[in-house]
Amino acid sequence: MKRIIHLSLAPFTVIPLIFTIVFIINLFSFPDLWIPLETMFAWVLYVVLMMIGLISYFVVHIFYTDRIRSDKKTLWTILLFFGHVVAIPIYWFLFVVNDE
Which range of residues forms the domain containing residue 91? Predict the structure, then answer.
């Protein structure tokens, strides 16, 4: 059951990264936008709420798992808070997928 939950988190860990890349590309092509800015900013709220949920889940996972050494738990927590868009897919791949 735990494995199914962890595998179902896969799309949610990648969506913020993809959204950030699309948002930046869209902003750099400003006069000829292929997605209207109103639509992009409307989706920002949903992505931010998703990120808050993912960060909360993974911080709890950090302190309940034995796969991460105790001296690295604080480092991963800081990485999730400050580098969340890139750190969440990396953390999910390294520690959550194969968590038994």
Answer: 2-96
CB of 96 within 8 A of CB of 66? no
DSSP helix, strand, coil percent of the chain (3-state; round to 5): 85, 0, 15
| Domain tally, the chain | 1
pLDDT digits (tens, 9 = 90+) for 14-67: 999 999 998 888 888 777 777 777 888 889 899 999 999 999 999 999 999 888
In whole angstroms, how far apart are CA 17 and each of 7, 11, 38? 17, 10, 20
Q: How far is CA 14 from its chain centroid? A: 6
Cβ(61)–Cβ(5) below 8 Å: no
The pTM for the full model equals: 0.84
Cβ-contact 13, 92 below 8 angstroms: yes
Distance CA(1)–CA(15), nearest Å, equals: 23
